[in-house]
C-alpha cells in the first residue's frame, strides 16, 4: 500500500508539473494602439465628460500607468522608437522619414521581427508602424486608413479631398502639406459627423465620402446611421474579433502576437452621428485654458525653428480655428465635441477586441497592452495639434494586463515612456533582449516595466526618474541630436530646453496645466536637478551636444 501511494504521488507530480511547465508555454500578446489620444478617458480623467467604458474596464482588470509619455509627440518617429526600442536621439529618426531608411533602425529588430523569429505568429491590421512593411508580418490585413474623407468632383476627372463640408474657412482647406496625405486632400482641418451628401455640392462640385487610404479613391457609402459602410476602425475591430475566433478554432498551438491599430482620434475627426449625439454642443466643457498662458513659453517663438513649415502647425491650426467661427469659444467647443466623439467611437472598437479575447480560450494566457502614440492639445497655450513639448501633447494612456501577474485596478505613478514597452513584453514572454542585427544597430534604450507590474510602488526599477520626449526643430538640424527641443517629465516636474537655449520649468504637482514657467525670469533650484537627469538619459550624446545644458 505504501509503495502504491508513493507511485501515485510520483505520477500525479509528473502530470501536474508537466501540464504547468511555463517554459514551453509562451503567452500570447495583444497590442492595441490608438492615434493622437491624450488623457481624455475615464482612467486619466483629462476631460470630465469623456465616455470610455471599455478603456475603463480594461484598466480595472489590469495596471494603468498614470504618467506614461511618448518619446516623440508625432506619429512616425514615436512609433518607430516605440517598436524598435531606440530613442530618437540615438537613431536620428526625429521626423517622418521611413524607419527602414534609417541606418540604426533598419539594423535593429522591430518588436514584430523579434517575436516572429522566436516562434510567434505575428499578425496585424491598421496603423501600427507609421511606415509599414508587410513582409515583416506572418499576416497583415488592412493598411492604415484615416477615412472617411469628404471629396468633391467626379471620379473620372480626379477627386479632390476636402475638409468636412460643414467646416468654414480658413479652417477648411483642400490641400495638405505634411505626413498624412489622403490622395492630396487636407484632413487636419476637418471634423464633424457623417452625413448624407448625395444632393450636396460645394463650389459647384458634387460631394461624396471615400475611404482615405494612400492607395487610391474608394467610395464610402453613407445613407444614414443604419445604412452605411463600416469605418476603417470598425473594419479593423471586426477583423481582430474574427481573427481571434479563427485562432481559437485552429489546431495551431503557436503563440500569437496580434496588433491592431485604430486611427481615431486622429484627424479628420469624423465619426458616426450617434457619437456626436452623446456630447451635446451646448454642454461641452472646454479644456482648462489660462488666458495668455503662452506668454511665458517659447515654443511659439519663430526663432525656435529654422523654417516654419509644418513644425508650427499647432499654432496655425489654433489661429485658423478661432478665425472660422464667431467666437473663440464656439470654435473650440465644436472641435472638442468632435474629438470626444472620436474618442468614444474608438473606445467601442477597443472594447470589441478586448471582449473577443475575454470570451475566448485565450483570456488566461494573453497579455494585453493598450497605448497611444502621443497626445493632443485642444487650445492650451493657443495650440491645437500634437508635436509640442507640454503635458497634453506628450502624455499617453498605457494599460497592461498580464494574467497571473497584474492585479486588478492597479495604478502606477512613476513616470515611464513608450520606450519601456518593448523590453517589458520581451521579459514577460521569456525572450532575450538581443535586438541588434549587426554593428549598425542599437540595443534597447528602455527598461522592463515588470517591477511595476509586480509592485506599483516598487523602488527596484532600474529605469530613469523621468520620461524623455523630443520635438523636432527643423530639417537643418536633422542629423544633430543636440539641436532639437527636449522635454523631461519626472513625477512632479517638467523641464524643457529648446534649441535656442531657452528653458521652461513647471511644478506639475501643484501646477498640472503648466501655467507657471518657473525659469521664465529667474533660475530655480530644481532646474539643475532636472538638467542632471536629462543628461543621464541622453548620455553619451551630451558630451558632444546639448552644450546649453551647463550646470
Rg value: 24 Å
Relevant CATH superfamily of the largest domain: Alkaline Phosphatase, subunit A
| Total count of helical runs of at least 4 residues | 14
Strand content: 15-25%
In terms of structural class, how would the helical and strand content be classed? alpha/beta
Q: Describe the main β-sheet briefly.
A: 8 strands, mixed
Tell me the domain tally.
2
Number of strands: 24
Question: Could you tell me how far the N terminus lies from the C terminus, measured between alpha carbons in angstroms?
Answer: 79 Å
Shape: globular
- Supply the CATH architecture of the largest domain: 3-Layer(aba) Sandwich
* Helix percentage: 25-40%
Describe it.
The chain is α/β, with parallel strands linked by helices and 551 residues long. It folds into 2 domains: 427 residues, 3-Layer(aba) Sandwich (Alkaline Phosphatase, subunit A), CATH 3.40.720.10; 83 residues, no CATH class. Helices cover 27% and strands 17% of the residues. It has an 8-stranded mixed beta sheet, sandwiched between helices. Strands 6, 7, 9, 10 and 11 form a 5-stranded antiparallel beta sheet that branches. A hairpin with a 7-residue loop joins strand 6 and strand 7.
